[in-house]
Specification:
186 residues, 13-stranded parallel β-sheet, 20 strands
């Protein structure tokens, strides 16, 4: 479902992107080319700040927002998802938040008020809250990192994890083409 927010903003979706019919995109959302947005995803840019302003939620080219993902933002703050980035099933990205290029965010993970730089991997059920994660860092499953976390204790992304992230992105790019080819059949 594509709908306006109370301010009258309507999502802008590149014609090459695929948005599942069960997904909800509301308001000032910008979806770039060859993006996959899976079933029951919710991307909602509708809250304004104290002055009535609202920053967009941006989804970069060749990224995938998988089943049940929620992307929202507090008080009109910007959320940006880079290019070739995968946000896996049921993850939550709540702004303000910036996620870089080539990032993998695992199942059920939560990002809030943070920056996740290029090439990072955040594994399943992890929480990244109120911090800046430099490029190439790996957050293990179930770990919670925040302002007081010593980032020197986190490993760098391994070659295997990087290859896995790239494989997920490529697989979902193929899904875009496949679903676009049959979208008039449902």
């Amino acid at each position: 479902m594509i709908r306006k927010n109370p301010s009258g903003d309507l999502p802008q979706i590149h014609p090459s992107a695929f948005v599942d019919p069960t997904a909800v995109l509301c308001g000032k959302v910008v979806v770039a080319e060859n993006v996959f947005i899976g079933p029951y995803a919710v991307i909602r840019a509708d809250e304004v700040d104290a002055t009535g302003q609202l920053e967009p939620i941006l989804i970069g080219a060749h990224s995938n927002i998988q089943d049940g993902v929620v992307i929202h933002s507090k008080s009109g703050a910007r959320v940006s998802i880079g290019e070739r980035t995968s946000i896996a099933h049921r993850a939550i990205v709540h702004g303000p938040c910036r996620v870089g290029n080539g990032v993998f965010i695992g199942f059920n993970s939560v990002l809030f008020d943070c920056v996740v730089e290029d090439g990072c991997v955040v594994r399943f059920n992890a929480v990244v809250d109120g911090c800046h994660l430099p490029a190439g860092f790996h957050v293990p499953s179930t770990m919670r990192i925040g302002r007081s976390t010593d980032l020197a204790t986190l490993p760098k992304v391994s070659v295997d994890a990087s290859e896995f992230s790239e494989d997920v992105a490529l697989t979902n790019n193929a899904l875009v083409r496949g679903y676009k080819a049959i979208q008039n059949e449902f």
